Structure formats: structure tokens, C-alpha cells
Amino acid sequence: MEFFDSHAHYNDEKFEQDRNELIKKIYSEGITKIINAGYSLQSSKQAVEIAKNYNFMYTTAGISPNDIDDFKIEDLSEIENLARNEKVVAIGEIGLDYHWNTENKELQKEVFISQIEIANKLNLPIVIHTREAIYDTLDILKNKIKCIKKGVFHCCPLNVDLVREGLKIGFYISFAGPITFKNSKNADEIIKMVPLDRILIETDSPYLSPEPLRGKRNDSRNVKYMAQKIADIKEITLEEIAKATYNNAKNIFKIK
Question: What is the pLDDT of residues 140-193, one digit of tens each?
């Protein structure tokens, strides 16, 4: 049985001490595809450099809403150039975050739209980060700019409106550790809402470790906990979830 971790951050400093050893161990335990996600210009560059060492690892390139404090307009052309690398399979993570940032909402929207334009130009999907900004995110996707290759709501907030509307406009829903949390609201209902051919699984490593590992550094081996949770709710086998989510990720990211 093989698993695809569709969103992790091995470009994070928490992996500095044992990155190579850990990634090899992860692969040996059945996680045979990983998307190493960028979230700033520098982290996107680093993600590409790391992924060059592994034929099973791919990357995204993008500037997240939490990383635009020192944003410069020329950063967009650098993201575009970086995204032409064969390892880059999506523009992301990009989007809106009103939890950590409320004073720069208009800039967040501008940078989000500009990066969707890059994705459209390069015929790439997008990976969306949205937090406490669901309706503005949907407004942009539905009314402000057409996203040609669609994409993924990464670590998708467990919000019925977001999932319903996201599915309507052709996006995939990616589930992370929060679906396993004991205090998680709506998780079972939302898992049931998402068709099997539109689900991805991710760890968002090193963050958001699933139950029963909360508080520990997360890594891609723990994607199995999300797969098991989804299998339990949908009353199908773990193997079926592993196969479906693997194929879905290969499909959206155009990985052979």
C-alpha cells in the first residue's frame, strides 16, 4: 500500500537536523510521493533544491498570505520563473488569512489574484491557504478571476459552505490532522460530503500532528492517520482511500 502526502514542508527549519535521513525513512515506510510546499519566495527556492534530491518529491512555488509583509512586486516574476522548474507542480500555497493578518486584506487579495494569473499563464493548478477568509476566497475564485487548472484547498477548513462551493467550482479538498482531533467540529459531516475522487490527504508537516501524536513534530508517515479516519467515516477500506487519494493527487498535479 502506497500513500501520497500532498502537502508538507521539508523546507522548514524543524527538519534541519535530520532531513535526508528522515525523508528516506518515510519513503521506506510506504509514503512514495510527497509535495514539498513553498510559502514564500525563499522557502519555494529551498523546496525545489530539496526536491531535486528525490525522484518521488515535487514542489509548489508561491507566497502565502502570512509571508507578504516584506513582499516586493518583483517577487512575482521570481515565483513565475521558479515555477517553470520541472519539479514545481502547482502555484502555492497562496490565498487569504484573516486570522493572523487583518491590516493588509487588500494586499492579500492582490497577491492572491496575481499568483492565480501566474498559474493560468503556466497552466498549473493552485494550492489554497484560507483561514477566517472563506467568503472573500470564494468571491475571488467565483467572481474575480477564472482559475483554469483549478486546484486544492489545502488543510481545508471544516466549513460546510467552503467545501460545498469549492467542490462546485471544481476544486479538490485536502484533509490534514484536524480531522482526527477530538474537538474537531463538522469533520465527519464534511468527510461524507466530499466524493472519493476529489479527496487528498496531507500532513502539513512539521505542523498539525494528528491524534494521538498532537504536540509532536509531524512527518509524512502520519498521513496514514488521516487516511484511516476517512476510511472509517466512509466505511471503506484503508487500501481504497490510499489508492483514491494517490490517484487524485497524481491527477491534479499531473504526475506520472
Answer: 999 999 999 999 999 999 999 999 999 999 999 999 999 999 999 899 999 999
- Model pTM score: 0.97
Q: pLDDT tens across 79-111, in order?
A: 999 999 999 999 999 999 999 888 999 999 999
Please state, as a whole number, how many other Cβ atoms lie within 10 Å of the Cβ of residue 16. Answer: 7
Scanning the chain, the segments in alpha helix (DSSP H) are 19-28, 41-51, 74-82, 105-122, 134-139, 160-168, 187-193, 223-234, 238-252
Domains defined along the chain, listed by start: 3-252 (3.20.20.140)
Measured CA to CA, the distance from residue 240 to residue 223 in angstroms comes to 14
CA nearest to 87, candidates 127, 119, 110, 56: 56
